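Before a colleague's protein record goes any further, I have to sign it off. Would you go through it and say whether the fold makes sense for this chain? Take the sequence as given and treat only the tokens as open to question. The record follows directly below this note.
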Amino acid sequence: MTGRCWLGCEREDLPVQWVGPVEVGIERADLYGCADCLARLRARVLEEAGRR
């Protein structure tokens, strides 16, 4: 889908992928990320997983 990236770059009107729900207090929203931010997130997850 086309939308705004919530993962840091906050660019708008670009392809984004649903990441999952996010909750802050009692509020809930769908979290979306662009390909660039999702790649950075994946790299961090793999880095952290390698430390275990």
Summary: The chain has a mean pLDDT of 95. The two ends are 35 Å apart (CA to CA). Strands lie at 2-3, 14-15, 17-24, 27-33. The CA atoms of residues 32 and 40 lie 14 Å apart.
